[in-house]
Specification:
single chain, about 200 residues, 2 domains, 5-stranded mixed β-sheet, 3 helices
C-alpha cells in the first residue's frame, strides 16, 4: 500500500484563480512519488512522470483543463512476467462545468461529452494525473517475442479441441472439404445431381 503522503498532489481552488487568464502548471515528480504512483497503480515501476498544462477560464464559472502527460512505466508481461517498459505521451482535456450535475443512482447514462465533469471546489492535479496515467497504461503488455502458445486439453483417446476448431467458420471448412471429396469421386456427375 503506497504512503498517501508520498503521492503527488497539487490542489487548486478554482474559485481563487483569476477569471480572465489561464493558470499554468507543471508537476515534475520525484522518485519517491513515482514509486508511490507505481504502487497505487499495481505496476512494477514508474521511472519518469510529468504532467504539465493550463486551466483556462470558460464562461462565467467553468474551466477547461488542457495538459500533456509523459511517463515511462514498467509492467509485467502478461505471458512471461518479464518487465516491459512503455513510454506514454498523452494529451488530456477535461471540462469542469458548474451546471453539470453529478450522476446519481446505479444506472447512469454516459454524457455526450466524455471530458465533461462537475465543477469541484478544489481540484487535485496529482489525482487527475494518476487517473490519466491509469487510463493510458497498456492493458496487456507483452515482452518482445512473447507468444501465448496453445493449450490443448482432452480425455485420453479423444481428438483434442484446438483454438482453430473454435473459430466461427471452422465447421464450414470441414463441410467444404467433404463436399470437395464427394465431387472428386465422380467427375462426370454434375454438382447437386443425385442418382
Amino acid at each position: 500500500m503506497p504512503d498517501p503522503a508520498t503521492l503527488p498532489e497539487q490542489i487548486i481552488r478554482l474559485s481563487e484563480l483569476p477569471a480572465r487568464k489561464p493558470h499554468r502548471f507543471a508537476l515534475d515528480i520525484d522518485p519517491a512519488a513515482c514509486a508511490a504512483v507505481a504502487a497505487a497503480l499495481g505496476i512494477r515501476g514508474v521511472r519518469k512522470l510529468r504532467f504539465a498544462g493550463a486551466l483556462y477560464p470558460k464562461g462565467g464559472r467553468d474551466w477547461l483543463l488542457q495538459a500533456e502527460l509523459g511517463a515511462t512505466v514498467m509492467q509485467d508481461c502478461v505471458v512471461t512476467l518479464d518487465p516491459v517498459t512503455t513510454r506514454i505521451d498523452e494529451e488530456l482535456t477535461r471540462a469542469y462545468l458548474a451546471d453539470l450535475d453529478p450522476p446519481e443512482g446505479t444506472e447512469v447514462e454516459i454524457p455526450e461529452d466524455e471530458s465533461a465533469e462537475p465543477l469541484p471546489a478544489a481540484l487535485d492535479l496529482g489525482q487527475v494525473m494518476i487517473e490519466a496515467l491509469a487510463l493510458a497504461l497498456p492493458p496487456y503488455p507483452r515482452a518482445a517475442g512473447a507468444e501465448t502458445g496453445e493449450a490443448v486439453f482432452t480425455e485420453p483417446g479423444k481428438a483434442p479441441l484446438r483454438d482453430a476448431d473454435l473459430r466461427p467458420f471452422a465447421g464450414l471448412a470441414g463441410l467444404r472439404d467433404a463436399l470437395d471429396a464427394g465431387r472428386d469421386s465422380d467427375p462426370d456427375d454434375p454438382p447437386g445431381d443425385a442418382d
